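Retro notes, item 3 of 5
We never archived the inputs for the WQD complex last cycle. Fixing that now. Sequence and ligand:
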Amino acid sequence: MSEGKILVIGGAGYIGSHVVKALNESLFAVTVYDNFSTGQECNLFPDNKLVKGDILDSAKLEQTMSEGFDAVIHLAAKKAVGESMEKPDFYAKNNLIGSINIFNAMLKNGVQNIVFSSSAAVYGTPQYIPVDEQHPTNPINFYGFTKLEIEKVMNWYSELKNFNYIALRYFNAVGYAADGSVCGMEKNPQNLQPIVMENITGKREKIFVFGNDYETPDGTCLRDYIHVEDLASAHVLSVKHLMKNHSSHIFNLGTGKGTSVLEIIQSVERVTGKKVNYEIAPRRAGDPAVLTASSKSAETVLGWKPEYTNIDDIIKTVWNMELKNNGKL
Ligand code: WQD
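Structure as it came back at the time:
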């Protein structure tokens, strides 16, 4: 007997594969739906059923959901902030239309519960720190706009239909499964942690620190780095909550602690024993000096708490994954 039947859309991606792993460990029966545009075959687990499909393919979504699921977890989105400003049409199609296709396929098949992968990008420039869920939402990039609009559609559906949702607003996702079971380094990473690791593994000659003149202790930006296995556990709790309580919520997921760009670099150097080749560059447009989360709601309602709070422990999981998959470093 399984705990429930879950469809994980985007389950071969970086966060998706960790969510699938956590669901498997909690004895859910999981089907992965992925188009492998960024997901990787090596991130699949043998226990899970696989449907190769796109979220723009409504017929396939409907056919897949006709099997019946206790909940859907939707992590299939384009997520590069810079690219979203250059190709808003592409982001509108994939993120907005794709999500609506998922919701409509759910309605058609009587699937009532969804956990949605949202983002701190819905808040825009923070007006106060730590950011809680009551903070005004005012995205400053098209990617963040798509996440906020999808939340609003879910909110309307929850008012009008038999539809319950939990939107999880992730802060900065980092780390890998501590046991090395998720293989995939992202192709063409855009975020700090994978970029720094690419320098260590020789894939990138040099990295740039975007600004060291912010009003922070070392002048570089502070972010709330949350381990991907802690994100994954929040999805499991969210599914359980939806199945039991049928109520909709929005939760921030972060540790509440700010870590600077230089502290990430220093941690990578400590953990790997290698030097990071970096250069101070001008500030990047749109970067707030500090962005940290209050995750009190997730703690109170879901009983969620991040286990990883030390940056070296987080970076060790990345290094383990590198050594396992790329052993001849
Ligand atoms: C972190 C810090 C950079 C690269 C983004 C999205 C957000 C969410 C998480 C998905 C910043 C600095 C980075 C580099 C650097 N995504 N940096 N050199 O911008 O905090 O958040 O990812 O939902 O919506 O905006 O993450 O990893 O890009 O940057 O100095 O080569 O590292 O300036 O201070 P960010 P990031």
